[in-house]
Specification:
Length: about 750
């Protein structure tokens, strides 16, 4: 008998039994959701020992020449054609010529390979397009991003048969087909796997021939592009009562391409999502018959729909909403800084008040952080990764940063942002926030269950392997596999524990850090927190086991730490990739200290709520001997970040590069830009008058304080400011009763399947 086999039989075997009882068995859908996508930098962070050199060596996201010229050409042309007020309040839709332009220029085909007639853009190019379009029109951005995100094209490329790709992809690429993705129904929202939409395998007539196919009944809602789609990517539960496909009766979630002109489909009615007029609505199918070869991937993919959806979601949600959120966040920073500079109260620009600077500082930092994280995520995707935990982090935290930013922007603009009308450039972003928070995995669920829940299993160096070993059918093999990973896990835990202890007691002064001068200390502190997080994550998993699934508050806080570690490392990478620009250092400082404060707060609250109090006290002693010491950025740092938004600078331009700020119809932002520039340019003239205590311009001319040219420039600046400060009003009779007469879900003629 070897020492190994003695260990296995005497020590590992009882632990194996305990672990089998403590860890929950995974259901098929849970297993598919958890193992979808892959891992990347998140697993380094989770291990408690991030390799900074490898991280910094990741090539930054970059555009090809063709991608750049698409952004400079069709994207800017599209932005010039859009007028959000008109779309949302007059037309209720994008203009026909915009739909045609989107199809002709292949905006819906960014992810489709060139061989099929698509643009075959990188993730970063896709993201840049959505970001620029979103800075002009959220409606257009949502319309563009849906076919390029989770939907038929993505599913066909990953799982379709060659025949399906050859038929559908060219038609999707040139706009003959407009796709949507139909998963959500009345019963099944977040718990999409509980849908009752069903398909039954049977024989039927399709295009004059008798074939084996599926008879479908469904009732979906909230489907973006649904009302105008020509093909649905439809998810349903498949049953085969007559065993025509040969195996069991319950075949599971399946995804098929369903042309919307088939008999039995009701489609076309619209929802009004927060009064944002992108196409969104319900659709139903009553005994719709499709041949089996419309199942994506054909018979081989029958019943594998959930895995397909989870895998496709992993990439899409790392791009679409984060790009839209990055646009909104950068735009809020830019316009709020400009407005705070041109709007005066008590005789000075409001941006000089500390109360306003307290809002401008986070606006600037949010824009920096979110764009850093967006670029890092795209860099990972463009390396061929499909990081599901990172894309969940991005979805939640990008939309939360967007919400934080628009709240600050609204508060600073005050009445100007409250009064609706064509000259209000913030109200639509404000209204649209809950849409971003809800779609592609509602935030509360994703934060509370997925980020740490999935992160722990996917990114932990040993946990998934242990769980898979526990589920192994052959008992001897199961024990052997478990023994190998369990002891590797123990070794990892012990080394991480001592690492975390040392780093915590030395306040992160000795962590590993690449030689990057001014921010070296930040790498070290991230190292410290990553080690502390790894210890706490291990302890929580050990103490709570399967019951952690129900302790969502603990899971959410641990997820917040992982998310902060990701966002902050993205900030350091951005600073590194951009050449360590001194002028941006304040933004880095703000982001790091705010993030450290969040991490320390979450560490403390997890420890305060662990049920095993003795263990919690020991961990507190090891990981946070003096409690919470980080209180966020200093007032000085906040002020310096605010100042970046209050005057023209390269730093300010970097924060908002690529946004559409050009004059166009109802381009109130372009007017604000002009007013801001004029106010900044004429600042010295105003100061001259102020120093001479001269308030009257005629007087100033008479006394020679201003020449004619300077007086004209001041008038021009005053007029531009007046135009921006104006708000809209309407004839009372125009604000009559709404023309919309809704029906509710319960009015629908839903047939029970
Ligand atoms: C404008 C819009 C566009 C959409 N587009 C599409 C589309 O194109 N295709 C499509 O298929 N679907 C689409 N959806 C559906 C969207 O994905 C769902 O709305 C979303 O999944 C949430 O479902 P629900 O709204 O029914 O909320 P519910 O599932 O009822 O959730 C309500 C709340 O409970 C929380 N929650 C649920 N379970 C848990 C849990 N276990 N722990 C903690 N919190 C929990 C959620 O986070 C949420 O805050 C769209 C929705 C909207 C509003």
């Amino acid at each position: 008998m070897t020492i190994k086999s003695i260990r296995r039989n005497l020590i590992t075997r009882p632990i194996f039994g305990l672990a089998q009882r403590a860890l929950p068995g995974l259901s098929k859908t849970e297993r598919e959701a958890l193992t979808a996508g892959d891992i990347w930098w998140d697993s380094d962070l989770f291990s408690g020992r991030p390799d900074w050199h490898k991280f910094l060596d990741t090539p930054p996201a970059a555009l090809s020449k063709a991608e750049q010229s698409f952004l400079d050409g069709p994207v800017r042309e599209l932005c010039g054609m859009l007028d959000e007020w008109e779309i949302n309040h007059t037309r209720g839709d994008l203009p026909e010529e915009v739909w045609e332009f989107l199809k002709r220029e292949k905006f819906f085909a960014m992810i489709i390979p060139k061989d099929y007639g698509g643009l075959e853009f990188s993730a970063f190019a896709n993201s840049e397009v959505v970001r620029t379009v979103a800075s002009r029109s959220l409606v257009a951005a949502v319309t563009v991003m849906v076919p390029n995100s989770l939907g038929p094209a993505e599913l066909l490329m990953q799982f379709g048969t060659q025949e399906q790709r050859d038929f559908w992809l060219p038609r999707l690429a040139d706009g003959r087909e407009l796709p949507c993705f139909a998963l959500t129904s009345t019963e099944a929202g977040s718990d999409a796997a509980s849908m009752v939409d069903r398909g039954v395998v049977c024989k039927g007539i399709f295009k004059g021939r008798e074939v084996i196919g599926i008879r479908l009944n469904w009732s979906k809602r909230y489907i973006t592009l649904g009302p105008v789609a020509t093909v649905l990517g439809l998810a349903f539960k498949l049953f085969d009562p007559d065993k025509l496909l040969g195996e069991g009766e319950v075949r599971g979630i399946t995804v098929a391409l369903v042309p919307t002109d088939l008999p039995g489909i009701e489609i076309g009615r619209r929802h009004l999502p927060a009064m944002q007029m992108f196409q969104n609505g319900p659709n139903q199918g009553h005994d719709v018959f499709i041949p089996l070869d419309l199942v994506i991937g054909g018979e081989a993919q029958v019943g594998k729909g959930w895995r397909m959806l989870m895998s496709a979601l992993a990439a899409g949600r790392g791009i679409s909403l984060p790009s839209l959120s990055a646009a909104a966040t950068a735009l809020c920073a830019r316009v709020t800084g400009s407005y705070a500079r041109i709007r005066k109260q008590f005789g000075i620009p409001i941006g000089h008040f500390e109360g306003i600077q307290e809002r401008l500082g986070p606006l600037a930092a949010n824009a920096y952080v979110l764009d850093a994280a967006r670029r890092l995520t795209c860099a990972g995707l463009d390396q061929g990764r499909n990081p599901s935990v990172i894309s969940a982090i991005m979805k939640v935290h990008a939309t939360y940063l967007m919400r934080d930013s628009i709240d600050h922007a609204m508060d600073v603009h005050a009445g100007k942002a409250v009064i609706d009308g064509p000259s209000n450039y913030l109200a639509d972003i404000y209204r649209a926030i809950p849409v971003g928070i809800t779609v592609e995995g509602a935030n509360i669920l994703t934060r509370s269950m997925i980020i740490f829940g999935q992160g722990a299993i996917r990114c932990h160096p040993w946990l998934l392997q242990e769980m898979l070993a526990l589920e192994e059918h052959d008992p001897q093999k199961a024990l052997e596999n478990f023994d190998a990973c369990f002891w590797a896990h123990v070794k990892h835990s012990i080394t991480t524990f001592f690492r975390a202890w040392f780093f915590s007691w030395t306040f992160g002064r000795f962590g590993s850090a690449p030689d990057t001068g001014r921010v070296k200390a930040y790498y070290r502190r991230l190292d410290r927190y990553a080690a502390a997080f790894a210890v706490l994550a291990d302890a929580t998993l050990l103490l709570l086991g399967g019951s952690l699934k129900r302790r969502e508050m603990l899971s959410a806080r641990l997820g917040d730490i992982l998310a902060e570690l990701f966002l902050l490392s993205a900030v350091l990478k951005r600073w590194h990739d951009e050449g360590q620009l001194e002028e941006d250092l304040m933004l880095v400082k703000f982001a790091m200290h705010r993030g450290f404060a969040v991490i320390e707060n979450r560490l403390r609250t997890v420890l305060a709520n662990l049920p095993q109090r003795l263990v919690a006290s020991v961990l507190q002693f090891i990981l946070m001997p003096l409690g919470v010491l980080e209180h966020g950025p200093s007032d000085q740092v906040v002020k310096r970040c605010a100042e970046i938004l209050l005057a023209p600078s390269a730093s300010r331009d970097r924060l908002t590069a690529g946004l559409f700020l050009t004059p166009a119809a109802n381009a109130n932002i372009a007017e604000l830009e002009q007013a801001f520039n004029l106010v900044c340019e004429t600042e010295s003239l105003r100061r001259r008058l102020h120093d001479a205590r001269c308030v009257d311009r005629h007087d100033a001319l008479a006394k020679g304080l201003l020449n004619e040219d300077e007086a004209a420039r001041l008038r021009e600046s005053d007029d531009a400011v007046a135009r921006v400060l104006a708000v809209d009003d309407f004839p009372a009779e125009e604000l009559g009763e709404s023309n919309f007469r809704p029906t509710t879900d319960t009015d629908d003629q839903r047939e029970s399947p």
